[in-house]
Amino acid sequence: MAEILLTAFDLNNYLREALPALRAAIYRGDLSQAKDVLLIHDDTIYDEYDLSLALVENDYSWIFTDKAANPEELDPEGTLVGLTYPLILAYHQPDLFRVKLGGSELTKLFPFFPSATAQRPIGPTESAVNIQPGFREGLRTMWEIMGYLTPESTEALRQYCLKLRGERADLPPNGTVRLLDQIASGLKVVVERGFGLVIERD
Q1: Alpha helical stretches, state H, 58-202
Q2: If pLDDT is split at 50, 70 and 90, which confidence band does 173 have?
Q3: Which end of the chain has fewer beta carbons closer than 10 Å to its terminal beta carbon, N or C?
Q4: CA proximity to 156, closest of 133, 121, 129, 187
C-alpha cells in the first residue's frame, strides 16, 4: 500500500496570513499581499510576470473547490505552482514533526486516515481525529496534500496514540509500539505550539 506523510503545519498563521493573500491573487489578480507574506519567510513568487498575466486572463477560483483535487487537469502548465507552493510550504514544519505511515500501520491502527491512492475526496469523520479536506483553504492546490488536521484534531490524534499505547503496555517493544511512542512524543511539541498537521502523499 502507498504511504502517507503527516507533517506539522502552522495552520492558524496560514489561515490568517497566506489564505487572504491567496484569495486576493485569485479573485483580484493582486499579488502584493502574497509577496509581502513570502518576504517574511525569505521566499518569493516564481514566474511572477507570467502568473500576473494568467490571473487576469483566467478564472482560477476552482482552487477553493473540490475540483482542486485534480489540479494537473485544470492547470496542466502548472501556472499556479509558483504562487501556491511557496505560500503553503512557508508554513510547513517538517523539522518539527514528520512521520510516514503505510501498510498495516495505516489500515489497522489509523483507519480514519485515507490511503495515498484514495480517489474519493476525504472529509470529516466520526472519529475525534477529524480530517478536513482542505479545499476551501486552498491547500489542495499542492497536489501532495490530501487533507489536514486542526490543532484540536492533532491533540486528539496524540491522545488516540497514547490510548493505544496504554492498551499495549504489557507487550514487549515492537514496531507498532515504537510507532505509537514516536507519534505521541513528536506531537507533544506540535500541540504545544498550536500547530496542526497536513496529510500528504509520499
Answers
A1: 71-74, 81-89, 103-104, 151-167, 175-192
A2: low
A3: C
A4: 129
